Amino acid sequence: MCGIAGYNLDGKLSNREDIAAISQLLISLSYEMSTRGSHAWGTLSHKHFIKSSGNIIDSYILPEPLPPSYAIHTRHATHGAASDHANAHPFESADTMGNICGMHNGVIYNHSELNSSHGRTFAVDSQHIFAHLAEGQSLAELEGYGAIVYLHDGVWKFGCFNGGELTLARTRLGWIFASTKASLVRALRFAGLSHDRWYHPRQGKLYRFSKKPGAPPITIGALNISQSTLLTKWDDDKLNIHDWLAKRKDSTRGRGISWDWEWDKEDAAQDTLLAQWDKEFSAEEMTKQDHDFPKLKN
User: What is the structure's pLDDT at 210?
Assistant: First the structure.
């Protein structure tokens, strides 16, 4: 489990109040994401990216000046040495489809097979996603789950697949995003920012932020990464609970761990906490429901 968080502002920060709000937001988001990964961390903006080993709360420094768009990643190592800062996200790849630099929260299960079939020596499984995108190859060859945020020739793109987590909030300054809604709620409160609406990317869809301030992100393609056939077979043959899971609302989480009952406990605890926060919202806010992105033309 890793963490992704950041923002995409409508314009430049023009006063001290807004600069202070975004600064406090980043402090809170960096702390929130540290609980999802403490092996390494990295940041991404239009101008450059940074990688560092260790826990983000031990060495993170706010960017100065604050960029108009920015993303943070905290790593919990699954493939590749945890102590090597080179294995921290984001990862850069350039080929026929342009320059791509991105971060991933999740796992690509067939990492070793991809290294062999493509003659790669990647230490981290996530690198295959951005290499495939840069080379224009089909993502269906990859097996896994997650959420990605990346820059493609200067354009921010993002999406979730097979149960990956990412929540966005619309604020007066622009879009704020994080791996979980709970983390985003706490960060917004710490920064003194209110939200207009929550948004959840649809699974398997790729989006970009609109160039029009205030407009919702635009669907631009698909993330057709496959679920793990190995773990699907393990579920069916070993536990024989496929039919039961199919009836559950969260049966397609895609993590390949739908058989792990601890996730049910974690989800229930988070739902209880969010319900307590919801009681504190104003009556107007309580009437606003979660919405998927509307389908818009580019």
Answer: 86
